[in-house]
Amino acid sequence: MVKARKYVVKKHFEGLPKREDYDIVEYELPPLKNGEILVKVEWISVDPYLRAYNSRFPVPYDQFGFQVGIVEDSKDPRYPVGTRVVSHKGWCDYCVINTTDTSVAPAEIPHKLPNLKGLSNSLGVGAVGMPGCTAYFGFLELCQPKAGETVVVSGAAGAVGSLVGQIAKIKGCKVIGFAGSDDKLKWLEEIGFDKAINYKTADIAKALKEAAPNGVDCYFDNVGGELSSAIINQMNEFGRVSVCGAISSYNDAELPKSTILQPALVSKQLRIEGFIVWRWYSRHSEAFAELTKWILSGELKPREHITEGFENMVDAFVGMLKGNNYGKAVVKL
């Protein structure tokens, strides 16, 4: 029998998650059945949606999330011992995965780690995983950028935003990013952003007008709130907005109020569309191949913020929600 550990959410979060909101439970995994694999977890992802979805589940619940692991025992010939898999089994150090269950949602279906051609396996929960697909499809499919257009990205130093900005540059766009520290601004400009603005210290409307005197064509929205209202009110006619998230409000007890958008939406005939990345689940391999190619060519430079140790999961999660990470926040076991 294999002993495993997992994080169980025992209390709904109030504001930022806290260590006392979790229990670490030790338990024995059952023997494998046909169609199952035993996975030793190597990398675990922490992402904003873990906070956003917290109130949707009754407690207690096992903390979900993406992970990369290696198969240590198998009763499915398609996944021999030594195979690396990406799954949504969450914050645990070992798990049993049923590889034949077709009744689960797309996010719950495990897949073999893409061929990363020598890159770090951690990218399977980052730039060549769900966040990478989120950037790739959420930006390219909804914004449909054209060379020469001006693109704005909020949450630009995060896992998704930093990729969106670089993809926009690959497509020949001018890119402006908003982030929360001067060090992050410097990094964004190092990876190709034409301008980066500190939303905590700048006069947002004035700074954006100076950076984009001819207006904004595409906006990739990770944060919501007043920042997004200011950006949307400077968009050009027929501008496109891809709404990925609203991390600025995830820890608020009450939703914040922001400037009305309807005058800009109507007068500029803007298109705003939210999305969940699983819309394009059948095309994820397309994104994986393209993202890997760009990384290997040096056109895309993913950055990881690595925390080591299973016992530090909550610290990594809270740090990401506070904006301490540059690029993808991931935990190494």
Provide a descriptive summary of the structure in words.
- The radius of gyration is 20 Å and the shape is globular.
- With 333 residues, it is of the alpha/beta class.
- Helix 3 links the parallel strand 9 and strand 10.
- The strands form 3 sheets. Strands 3, 5, 6, 7, 8, 15 and 16 form a 7-stranded mixed sheet that branches. It has a 6-stranded parallel sheet with strand order 11-10-9-12-13-14, sandwiched between helices.
- It folds into 2 domains: 154 residues, Quinone Oxidoreductase, Chain A, domain 1; 148 residues, NAD(P)-binding Rossmann-like Domain (Rossmann fold, 3-Layer(aba) Sandwich).
- Helices cover 25% and strands 27% of the residues.
- Keywords: Acetylation, Cytoplasm, Fatty acid metabolism, Hydroxylation, Lipid metabolism, NADP, Oxidoreductase, Phosphoprotein, Prostaglandin metabolism.
- It holds the Pfam family ADH_N_2.
Summarize the entry for a quick read:
The protein is an alpha/beta fold.
Order of helices and strands: EEEHEEEEEHEHEHEHEHEHEHEHE
Low-confidence spans: none
| CATH level 3 topology of the largest domain | Quinone Oxidoreductase, Chain A, domain 1
The CATH architecture of the largest domain can be given as Alpha-Beta Complex
Oligomer class? single chain
Q: In terms of structural class, how would the helical and strand content be classed?
A: alpha/beta
Largest sheet: 7 strands, mixed
Radius of gyration: 20 Å
The average pLDDT score comes to: 95
Number of helices: 9
Strand content: 25-35%
Proportion in helices: 10-25%
**What is the H level of CATH, i.e. the homologous superfamily of the largest domain?**
Medium-chain alcohol dehydrogenases, catalytic domain
> According to CATH, what is the class of the largest domain?
Alpha Beta
Any idea what the shape is? globular
Alpha-carbon distance between the two ends: 20 Å
